[in-house]
Design a protein that fits this description.
The structure is a single chain. Helices cover about 20% and strands about 20% of the residues. It is built from 2 helices and 5 strands.
Length: about 110
C-alpha cells in the first residue's frame, strides 16, 4: 500500500472533488485553493516529480497536456489560466506524485515568488 496522498485519491481511499477522470489521469480541486479556481491534474500512475519522468511516460505526459484545454473548458476558464508544476525542494513541491496546478478566474502575477 502506498502512503502517497494522491495515490489514495486515485484509489478512492480519500475523497476529492473530481473534475475529470479517465483511465490514465485524474483532475480534482485543490484542498487549499490559491485562486478562485485551482485544480490539480495528475497521472494515475505514480511518477514522483518532473525529474522522474521517463521515456516510457511520453504518451501519458502528452495525454495530460492535451486534456488541459478540455479541463479548462469544463471549468469555464475562457479568459485564460496558469499551469504550474513544482519540482523538488527548490520548486517547493510538497506532494511526491507529479501534478500540474491549473489556476484561473483571476489575473495572475508574474514573476512567481
Ligand atoms: P505542491 O506544493 O506539491 O506543488 O502541491 C501540492 C498541492 O496539493 C497543494 O496545493 C495542496 O493544497 C494540495 N493537497 C495536499 N493534500 C491534498 C489533499 O488531500 N486533497 C487535495 N484535494 N489537495 C491536496
Amino acid at each position: 500500500m502506498s502512503d502517497c496522498i494522491f495515490c489514495k485519491i486515485v484509489n478512492k481511499e480519500i475523497p476529492a472533488n473530481i473534475v475529470y477522470e479517465d483511465d490514465q489521469i485524474l483532475c480534482f480541486h485543490d484542498v487549499s485553493p490559491q485562486a478562485p479556481v485551482h485544480v490539480l491534474l495528475i497521472p494515475k500512475k505514480r511518477i514522483v516529480s518532473m525529474d522522474d519522468v521517463q521515456e516510457e511516460d511520453k504518451e501519458l505526459m502528452g495525454h495530460m497536456m492535451v486534456k488541459i484545454k478540455e479541463i479548462a473548458q469544463i471549468l469555464g476558464l475562457e479568459n485564460g489560466y496558469r499551469v504550474v508544476n513544482n519540482c523538488g525542494e527548490h520548486g517547493m513541491q510538497t506532494v511526491g506524485h507529479i501534478h500540474f496546478h491549473i489556476l484561473g478566474k483571476r489575473k495572475m502575477a508574474w514573476p512567481p515568488g
